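Need a sequence for this fold. Nothing fancy.
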């Protein structure tokens, strides 16, 4: 199995970002009235018995976790269609959106170089999602962090508002984000 990180209360995270529940966490959730029908569960004898019991009463079985066979890139691309991004954000011309925030030749040059890498890595929808999230945060007065990790190396993410670290001002190369 490809489970990498143990979370709290019997949950695991695989390398694709899927949360997989272990028996104990499921039963705790059920006892607390949580609908567990959409959760991915780690296959076990107890889960098999539970699913057999549910089938007897024509109830939906729990989905047992199956390790994805796609590469992480293929997996991400396949499931991007399930992201909740309103139609108006899917229509945004991301490059125009970002260029409108630039005023110097240095900014234009940095955006052009970074944008090529976002294109190369097929991450334009990620930028659309980030624009939607930042707009939603602002609209709902939600506070988010000033920035951390390698994301602060991206000037484009700074212009979108994901973080507040001007990577041009502090001479942080975008290769810290893309690892090219």
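Here you go.
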């Amino acid at each position: 199995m490809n489970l990498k990180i143990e979370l709290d209360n019997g949950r695991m995270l695989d390398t694709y970002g899927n949360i997989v529940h272990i028996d104990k966490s499921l039963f705790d959730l059920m006892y607390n009235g949580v609908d567990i029908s959409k959760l991915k569960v780690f296959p076990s004898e107890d889960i098999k018995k539970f699913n057999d019991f549910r089938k007897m009463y024509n109830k939906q079985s729990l989905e047992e976790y199956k390790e994805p066979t796609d590469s992480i890139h293929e997996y991400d691309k396949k499931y991007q269609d399930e992201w909740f991004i309103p139609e108006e954000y899917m229509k945004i011309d991301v490059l125009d959106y970002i260029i409108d925030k630039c005023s110097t030749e240095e900014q234009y040059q940095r955006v052009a170089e970074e944008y090529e890498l976002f294109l190369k890595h097929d991450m334009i929808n990620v930028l659309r999602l980030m624009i939607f999230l930042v707009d939603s945060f602002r609209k709902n007065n939600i506070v988010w962090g000033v920035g951390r990790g390698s994301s602060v190396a991206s000037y484009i993410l700074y212009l979108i508002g994901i973080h507040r670290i001007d990577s041009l001002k502090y001479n942080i190369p975008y290769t810290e984000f893309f690892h090219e």
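For context: The longest strand covers residues 3-6.
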